[in-house]
Amino acid sequence: MRKLCAVVLVFEAIVLGLAIPVAIQLGEYSPSFAGGLWGGLAAAALVLAGLQRHSWAFYTGGLLQAAVLASGALVPSVALLGIVFAGLWCTGVLLGRRADAGAAA
Questions:
Q1: pLDDT in the model for residue 94
Q2: Which residues have a Cβ under 8 Å from the Cβ of 62 and sit 6 or more positions away?
Q3: How many CB atoms lie within 10 A of CB 23?
Q4: What is the pLDDT of residues 50-91, one digit of tens each?
Q5: How many structural domains does the chain have?
Q6: Domain enclosing residue 61, as ranges
Q7: Are 23 and 35 in contact (CB under 8 A)?
Q8: Coil, strand or helix at 27
């Protein structure tokens, strides 16, 4: 489960990095604000992807999904990305738990 969630976080970090120019153009935010907010979220996703072996990092990844959804209030297209990645996170948790249960049996 944790490997699948780490992969979701890595791809989310890439997409959040690509969302910075979108926020600058569509949201008309300054580059420093957009880079700080969405770049910080991307950096947090990368760090949490590397720390998925710890149980607290798994739960913090769920909080990161909520933060990405909340940042969608500033730029609606980022809200769509937040919904997609929150769905991928939930799917990763469900499928990962099934795979872990099958490997344990």
A1: 86
A2: 89
A3: 23
A4: 999 998 888 899 999 999 999 999 998 888 988 999 999 888
A5: 1
A6: 1-103
A7: no
A8: coil
Distance CA 83, CA 18 (A): 16
Q: Is the dihedral of CA 71, 75, 76, 78 positive or negative?
A: negative
Q: Please give the DSSP secondary-structure letter assigned to residue 1.
A: -
Task: List Cβ neighbours of 99 (8 Å cut-off, separation of 6 or more).
Answer: 1, 4
Encode pLDDT of 19-29 as tens digits: 999 999 988 89
Return the beta strands (E) in 1-105 as ranges.
none
Which DSSP category does 54 fall into?
Answer: S
The residue type found at 64 is L
10 Å CB burial of residue 7 (0-12, 13-18, 19+) is middle
Query: To the nearest whole percent, how much of the chain has pLDDT over 70?
Result: 100
Q: 96, exposed or middle or buried, with CB in 10 Å at 0-12, 13-18, 19+?
A: middle
3-class secondary structure, 77: helix
pTM given for the model: 0.89
